[in-house]
Write a structure and sequence with these properties.
Chain lengths: 417, 417
């Protein structure tokens, strides 16, 4: 299949199947123990479902995404799509069960409705709104296998042994763990197969069933191909899963730091030394020099260290902030900007300098409105080489801490290294 | 059973069974994708297994805890026990599989060895080193049920459908989710039952089996009672689970803040107003006044806001730090101390005051050695009532942020509200 070429290549190939995705998102949040349904719970202030939409819409060969939400949440969902600029999303009303919601999504794709831009795909992906970390790789695998087998789904090894209880609440038997798997998402189907299965299946299936692969087997005699998925496919189910998802997202957007300097020619520059220190102290983090800021913003770097040596004001930081605001980089994730000043306490009165720098609080309040988290950092710059090393190291530690936590309660603070 | 009386009461009752626990902790960390076995991964700088030991040893009616670790990790485990002052722990060498490790633990309890303080219990709990959030409640339930039924284990509803693959990697059949459960830990057994089962069972069972309840059924014909457990019983398996565990622990130790003041009589005191603001702004957090510090430390409050109004130095903070260091409160969790000063910028030169307060960096470095995280907070105290409200609110936000994140990279910083 040309699909295995993936990405843009597949888009051009005429044998690439038309692919759509259906996302049931009508569930309530009962398992979380919180009032908000879990797909709408915020992570870094953005609803979980937006991360899942982002994961699907970056895949160029997925043409349409149909999301099934309750009538109650329809307006909220429209706002999410608009605010986070999601493209190619259609909304349908969810049913009272997961299967009924999926069925509604499939109907929207099957029917040639007036004023509807959807058309029937060859293959349809079914995914969960609460599995935001799905990768293009596994989507491609289930779609390719569905084209060949009619149906395919991601699986994972079992973490716990599965047992069957007797009616009196005692162990009847336990299942051999090695012979069973957990059925996860995404799954993919030839559209005609899964649509037929939903049209044929009983009300009992629609009310109490949980497994699409089962419907394809029962009503269309299609044995789904099983695809080994990564641990990241797990379903955000409990409050602890929201914590885990937040930590994973924070970690992912903290992998790159761009250092911007106001003195570009001098390699002896203390800013370069801070950059070197960041490289040495922060393993696994890519430290980039900000020579081509437009390019770095395009590459989605979410962390900026802005070094001001020549000037004692925020001119360089202001330029960077303006660029960031124009770029829309911070629509999806909070962007961290740390404005660094160096100071030799012995030559400049410390207190006076700090008072001057306190205006960063006003800037921070202003740019927070566009999801930019601005902090100040004052690095001690003594004559003594060893002391300088120490304050640069301390500066790197503070920068790492601010980027890792992305704490909006501390914006506008002036930290001292 | 007198056990249902729980706690200290059960201890006195002569019909309370002697209970021991066995913790297999010989596993390697392969599923985490990290070199450290997961039971030794640090959370807030303390190894995961220490949290699990803490959860078991706080239960007064568990007399002995036997931990099975590899010869390689024996010394590290001894250090953990010493450093975190765990009591009543015995170490045995683990086997190459989970079942063999549990068997080694049971043997240590069964045998009357010279120089060994262990004695054979009536009931034995088997738990995992990587399930740190086990509550006394569920331990009591499995022990009580084991006494009656011979065996008992915690279960949870399935999060995913379980399927059985055919040899060619396709779906053979899926299991009805409502008729199955995940078998979790803790489990409990009459000692003679589970010891007999391990002595009878085959090498194949010891090598490839995963389920203790299954051994009791197969070799002793005991149908274990199944006990519905809470979501918190989940097993820390992947890196994301470590993130989740860290967030849960941080949340748990952030539920109470003690406000300590240097002026105790005056209710108009700005410190009282900060305390009120904390109460209003931080929902779900208990804000306590520090009138009886010894009592509050005993109650395991891990967060202190120390307000200095009468003095402009750190006298009150020093007193608190000394008390905390003597109490050993910070052995198990990092304790946050925020030293608050108020300042009317218009009457005192701002810079001079800050220079004076910078000595907090040295204090912070010093107390970090005993796991105390010290931060400074300077709150603007203007004449204008509305502005004062605003700076108190900002102060509460910063206090909340520092307590929530417990970030050791920012200790010694002087934050400004
Ligand atoms: Mg797309
Ligand atoms: Mg005990």
């Amino acid at each position: 299949s040309l699909l295995s070429g993936a990405g843009a290549g597949a888009e051009a190939g005429c044998s690439a199947p038309a692919v759509a995705a259906v996302l049931p998102a009508g569930g309530s949040g009962e398992r979380m123990g919180v009032p908000t349904p879990k797909q709408f719970c915020p992570i870094l202030e953005r609803p979980l479902i937006s991360y899942t939409l982002q994961a699907l819409e970056r895949v160029s060969w997925i043409k349409d995404i149909v999301v099934a939400v309750t009538g109650e949440n329809m307006e909220a969902m429209k706002c999410i799509i608009q605010r986070y600029q999601h493209k190619g999303i259609s909304l349908v009303e969810s049913g009272v069960t997961r299967h009924r919601s999926i069925f509604n999504g499939l109907k929207a794709l099957a029917e040639d409705q007036p004023n509807c831009r959807l058309s029937k795909p060859e293959v349809v992906i079914i995914h969960d709104a609460v599995r935001p970390f799905v990768e293009e790789d596994v989507l491609l695998k289930v779609v390719t296998a569905a084209k060949e087998h009619g149906a395919a789904g991601a699986i994972r090894p079992l973490v716990s042994t599965v047992i069957s209880p007797s009616v009196d609440g005692c162990l009847d038997h336990s299942l051999e763990r090695a012979r069973h798997r957990a059925s996860e998402m995404p799954q993919a189907f030839l559209f005609d197969v899964i649509y037929e299965a939903y049209q044929q299946c009983s009300d009992y299936d629609l009310e109490f069933g949980t497994e699409c692969l089962h419907l394809a087997l029962k009503y269309c005699h299609i044995k789904a191909k099983l695809i080994e998925g990564s641990p990241d496919l797990w379903k955000v189910t409990y409050k602890r899963d929201l914590y885990a998802a937040e930590s994973i997202i924070k970690e992912r957007i903290s992998q790159q730091i761009c250092v911007v300097m106001d003195a570009k020619e001098d390699e002896e520059h203390v800013g370069h030394r801070l950059e070197e220190m960041l490289k040495n102290e922060l393993n696994h983090v890519k430290v980039t020099s900000g020579r081509d800021l437009q390019q770095i913003i395009l590459e989605q770097c979410y962390n900026f260290v802005c070094v001001n040596v020549m000037t004692s004001d925020f001119e360089e930081t202001q330029k960077l902030l303006n660029m960031l605001e124009e770029s829309n980089l911070s629509i999806l994730y909070p962007v961290v900007v740390i404005s660094v000043q160096f100071l030799d306490y012995e030559s400049v009165p410390f207190g006076q300098k700090m008072e001057n720098l306190m205006q960063i609080r006003e800037f921070a309040k202003e740019v927070k409105k566009t999801n930019i988290l601005l902090y100040g950092l004052l690095v001690y710059y003594p004559q003594d080489e060893q002391k300088l090393q120490e304050s640069l190291r301390q500066g790197a530690t503070i920068i790492a801490a601010l980027i890792k936590e992305r704490n909006s309660g501390l914006i506008g603070q002036l930290l001292v290294a």
